[in-house]
Design goal:
Alpha-lytic protease prodomain-like; 3 domains; elongated; mainly alpha; 10 helices
Length: about 425
């Protein structure tokens, strides 16, 4: 894609002066404020002209409402309402994308650092709080399972025993990432977090398979009694575990999409809510209704646990293999590359894909063939450093060419 020749500076190279760039505030008169103002220097492609104000977005709903008042059909009214919401959602999403691209790279970095510093304590509480709670709950659930003899509670006990072990795995992986020998690991060790998450998933899945075998044997053997013995303290112990897991689930909710390890912990607490809640029901059902409800519940629980963790493992495998980044990230990387320097005449290719929890970026830029080697080197190196400063980018590779008619430099090696 060719770019127009201009003398504009990149929004990512220099912070925009406060006279030209106004942040949206959260005051009561926010909706009455006009969109931020941009100049040709910091908005060379006039993206800001596509911003919709809050008043314009509200007008879309008002226009649709007037049409509905005249519409004789209920179906027509419903269709117009859905169309109105979709249009509003589209323009709100477009505003967010444009403002994200126009934000200087330095501001992206500053926001990431502020988030990390503000949430460091919350992260430690989530990780170490989960670890301490899981250690205590494993003891409580061992008592509940052993004293009652319920297979459903044995399933919740096995899950509780392995929770602190898996938490310890995540802690060790996080520590390993921060201590890197660059000679031995030149690309860093960030992917060990993803590998640790996968080990976590398969550890929990393997426990479930063992419990399925025990429960199936119990169902095959049968029972002479119509119901099992009811043990109230065991039910209370698992109920305490349910309440604790719910509190941890709510606490980890806010940071689940920012930190991969917090997301794994959040998913673990979410799964434990299903496990403990369903375990209580089937254990009580086995003692009050029919004996086979208890082992059958253990089988259902174990299958559910396996399915949940195998789904999580599949997602983590995709990150490790390398899946394409989301559209918003690709747009941001493309825009930063396009506006990096007026010496860049075109962008040939932009690739962004996962390498563990972060991204690898490949950008092919086009420059004048008569430009000096020093100029092309400086432009490419500065772009590489800028892209690598983005919070989600692990490494960036910038390739310089003088035309766009060549075949791709890289191809998939399907055969040796």
């Amino acid at each position: 894609m060719s770019l127009p020749h201009h003398e504009a500076t990149s929004t990512g190279v220099e912070p925009v002066e406060t006279t030209h760039y106004q942040h949206r505030t959260h005051s009561s008169d926010e909706e009455s404020q006009p969109p931020p103002r941009y100049t040709p220097e910091n908005d060379p492609f006039q993206l800001s002209s596509k911003l919709k104000s809050a008043e314009e977005i509200r007008e879309i709903k008002a226009n649709t409402s007037r049409k509905r008042d005249c519409a004789p059909s209920l179906v027509k009214k419903t269709t117009d309402a859905v169309t109105s919401r979709r249009l509003q959602g589209f323009y709100e999403s477009q505003n967010e994308s444009i403002q994200r691209m126009l934000k200087p790279v330095e501001e992206h970095v500053r926001d990431a650092r502020e988030f990390t510093s503000q949430n460091q304590l919350k992260y430690k509480i989530a990780v170490w709080g989960s670890f301490a709670a899981n250690v205590i709950l494993s003891v409580v659930q061992i008592y509940g399972a052993v004293s009652s003899g319920s297979l459903s509670l044995f399933t919740t006990m096995a899950d509780a025993i392995f929770d602190p072990m898996s938490n310890l795995t995540l802690l060790l992986c996080n520590k390993a990432v921060s201590k890197v020998n660059p000679r031995k690991f030149p690309a860093g060790k960030a992917r060990i977090e993803t590998a640790g998450n996968i080990c976590f998933c398969f550890l929990m899945t393997s426990v479930s398979f063992i419990l399925i075998a025990f429960s199936a044997r119990e169902l095959k053997t049968g029972s002479e009694d119509e119901t099992n013995a009811f043990h109230l303290p065991s039910v209370i112990a698992v109920a305490v575990a349910f309440g604790t897991k719910f509190a941890l689930f709510v606490y980890c909710w806010a940071m689940r999409n920012q930190v991969s390890q917090i997301r794994i912990l959040w998913e673990d607490h979410r799964n434990d809510l299903f496990i403990n809640g369903f375990g209580i029901l089937t254990s009580v059902g086995g003692s009050k209704l029919r004996w086979w409800i208890d082992p059958m519940g253990a089988v259902i629980l174990s299958v559910l646990i396996s399915a949940l963790w195998l789904h999580t493992a599949y997602s983590e495998f995709q990150l490790l293999i390398g899946v394409t980044a989301d559209i918003q990230t690709q747009q941001l990387i493309t825009y930063i590359s396009m506006t990096h320097s007026p010496l860049i005449t075109a962008i040939d290719t932009v690739r962004a894909y996962t390498s563990g929890p972060r991204l690898l970026v490949e950008v092919d830029i086009v420059m004048d063939p008569n430009e000096t080697l020093q100029a092309t080197h400086d432009v490419a190196e500065e772009l590489q450093m800028k892209l690598e400063s983005l919070p989600d980018v692990e490494r960036a590779y910038v390739h310089v060419d003088y035309e766009t008619t060549h075949k791709p430099e890289h191809f998939l090696k399907k055969e040796l």
